[in-house]
Design brief:
Chain lengths: ~200, ~475
């Protein structure tokens, strides 16, 4: 018995001597870099256009309500916190609690989607479209594109939640959860920049 | 039909081939043979039009430039489709771990497609296009006369039927078999291919809308769903030749296709700069298409990474070379050369110049021709009953790889030089020359392009010869 447990300890050296490593899957980090490049280019071009037409962009921003987007920011950050909690709890092998964290992350993400949809529908009802002017074109394409990323993030979290049913993740087996968390943080990060750039900076 | 797993093989040879896991995979062979045959035809017509660039009356009036160009591009599409279908018939049973639902249907489909394709080419060459249009019922539903979609209505309907039969066959196989990421991505791509082809029947009178939907076929094929097919084929071959864990390869595949779709779908906008579509396309098209190289770059990293981490030395070295070549050349051709003219501010000057031709040649070869050749290189030895070809045959095949690939680089560079001249004389100059005057200044580049075209044909002949090298003399 003691021999067996000794063998077990020997088989898991990584737990005792944590080596620096990239959390999650390397391929996901490539993907995240690519995604950040897409948004980065988008933000850059936004900046250039805004510089050229400051009055138009300032006027457009006066039509943006700040309350709901601020709530949305909090929702996404709360979702990120849940993902961190999920990784920690899986690392402690607290399966039930970890899965609940994942579920909660999806609830926060869903809340974001509902608020965002409400906001977008309002804009469409007001007759705003991609062709209205450059500000609204950026507003719509940036927010809708980000919206789709939140959806993708939720799909990834849902997949992890689904696969976690039979104890796939646990101490030393965190790759999938970390990968999903990394993606969620990316979506969160992009929103923080988008929120600051399009809504707040006037 | 219910007992499809033991369906008899329609092929005449009764000898047992122990290199393929499922006997019905053998239906891929005629598809690959036809693909190579049509590939040769495509290159021959490419040489004809390459020559006509500087010797305008060559073969006049028998084969005018417009006709030969149509045959050149249509043969390209058709041989690639044969390649994809062959790949599908080989890959899906292997991934699903069961026999093809109906090998007989696959063979019938093959002959229908081949005969229809051949008749269409004969129609192009033997009849004036308007006569062909008239007798094939273009008056009923006008669909002809648009680039890549020149096929008569009956051929288009035929393509849809062939695609349906093919997809039915593979989907039935997949439904009752093992489902892997590779097979699912492959099927997604193939279904997308068929669905977007349906837009070839959409031909509004409004020229803007006509072009708008034309790109739904052309762009969403080559910069959308075809990339899924390509990714799946590349992943399949890499699993086989490197022995790297399927899980790792599939993860890469998912991320690559996600990136493809994120950039490629809205990237359609880079065709909507100057055709009368709303102004925002200049921005959306520029941003998203500028990032279309990313998935191709990921494919390059993917291919090299997997080969580096290989767990076995597969005897088929030629297939590995083709797979790596696909990674590099698709990135250069589709990624880098595509990027050159994709920003609207640049495209304003380069639109419709030889830059498009330069990009088109390297991208089609680097991405789609090469991925089909990768698949053929891996599967043909198996279909012919050996794990890999003899050393001598592989050596010739690898030489052919280099000759063809370098020839395409030469063609691309010649056409890029032509584009630079064209843009500067015809578009940027303070006193711009006319189109035809400019052409006179490009003649040396057209000569060079034709020379590299001959090199390519030589490489292709070496490639074909490699199938007949037994290598017995060496041993």
């Amino acid at each position: 018995m003691r021999e067996q447990s000794l063998a077990l300890i020997e088989a898991q050296p990584a737990r005792h001597v944590p080596e620096p490593h990239i959390p999650g899957d390397l391929a996901m980090w490539f993907f995240i870099l690519a995604e950040l490049a897409v948004f980065g280019v988008f933000f850059l071009v936004y900046g250039v256009y805004r510089r050229q037409q400051p009055a138009l962009f300032a006027e457009g921003q006066t039509h943006l309500d700040l309350l709901l987007p601020t709530l949305n920011t909090l929702l996404l950050i709360a979702g990120s916190a849940c993902m961190v909690a999920a990784v920690r709890r899986f690392a402690q092998d607290r399966q039930r609690a970890a899965r609940q964290s994942l579920l909660l992350a999806m609830v926060f993400g869903g809340g974001f989607l509902v608020c965002k949809l409400y906001e977008l529908v309002g804009k469409f009802m007001a007759g705003i479209s991609l062709s209205s002017n450059d500000f609204w074109m950026f507003y719509l394409s940036l927010t809708v594109f980000h919206f789709l990323h939140v959806v993708l993030g939720m799909v990834i979290v849902a997949a992890v939640w689904w696969m976690a049913r039979d104890g796939r993740y646990g101490p030393g087996r965190l790759d999938g959860v970390e990968t999903a968390a990394a993606y969620w943080h990316m979506v969160d990060l992009v929103w923080l920049v988008l929120f600051a750039l399009v809504y707040v900076a006037r | 039909m219910s007992n499809a797993t033991v369906a008899p093989l329609p092929a005449s040879k009764a000898t047992v081939n122990d290199q393929i896991k499922y006997r019905s995979q053998a239906v891929a062979k005629p598809y690959f043979v036809a693909a190579i045959g049509l590939f040769i035809g495509q290159i021959l017509f490419g040489l004809i039009i390459g020559l006509q660039y500087f010797k305008g009356d060559f073969l006049f009036p028998a084969i005018p430039f417009g006709t030969a160009r149509m045959v050149h591009t249509n043969l390209l599409i058709v041989w690639l489709l044969f390649g994809f279908m062959g790949a599908g018939y080989f890959l899906i049973p292997e991934e699903c771990e069961r026999e093809l639902y109906s090998p007989k249907l696959a063979i019938i489909t093959f002959w229908v497609f081949l005969v229809a394709g051949a008749l269409t080419i004969v129609g192009y060459l033997g009849l004036p296009y308007n006569v062909l249009a008239h007798i094939t019922g273009n008056d009923l539903l006008p669909t002809m006369g648009r680039g890549y979609l020149e096929q008569p209505l009956i051929t288009k309907v035929g393509i849809v039927l062939v695609a349906l039969s093919f997809l039915f066959n593979l989907s039935m196989t997949l439904l009752s078999g093992r489902k892997t990421s590779i097979s699912i991505v492959m099927m997604l791509g193939l279904w997308g291919l068929a669905i977007f082809f349906l837009f070839s029947f959409v031909n509004p009178n409004n020229l803007v809308l006509d072009k708008y939907f034309w790109w739904w076929v052309v762009h969403l094929w080559v910069e959308g769903v075809w990339e899924l097919i390509m990714g799946a084929m590349l992943a399949f071959v890499l699993v086989k030749v490197t022995g790297v864990d399927r899980e790792i390869i599939e993860k890469w595949l998912y991320l690559i296709i996600a990136m493809t779709l994120i950039t490629g779908i809205i990237g359609t906008g880079h065709h909507y700069f100057w055709i009368g579509t709303p102004g925002y396309w200049q921005l959306l098209g520029s941003i998203f298409s500028a990032l279309e190289p990313v998935p191709f770059f990921m494919m390059t990293v993917f291919a090299f990474n997997m080969v580096k981490r290989r767990r076995r030395e597969h005897p088929n070295q030629a297939a590995t070379l083709w797979a790596l070549g696909t990674g590099v050349m698709s990135f250069l051709g589709a990624g880098v050369w595509g990027f050159l003219g994709t920003l609207s501010v640049v495209n304003y000057y380069t639109h419709g110049t030889q830059l498009t031709a330069a990009h088109g040649h390297m991208a089609f070869y680097g991405a789609y021709a090469m991925v089909v050749l990768t698949m053929i290189s891996y599967t043909m030895p198996l279909l012919r009953g050996r794990e890999a070809n003899s050393a001598a045959a592989q050596k010739l095949e690898k030489t052919a790889f280099w000759v063809m690939t370098l020839a395409i680089v030469g063609i691309t560079l010649s056409l890029t030089a032509a584009a630079v001249t064209q843009v500067s004389l015809q578009r940027l100059s303070a006193s711009p020359l006319s189109f035809m005057e400019t052409q006179q200044h490009i003649m040396p580049m057209y000569w060079a392009r034709f020379g590299f075209g001959l090199c390519f044909f030589t490489g292709l002949m070496m490639y074909v010869t490699s199938f007949f090298v037994t290598g017995k003399r060496e041993s």
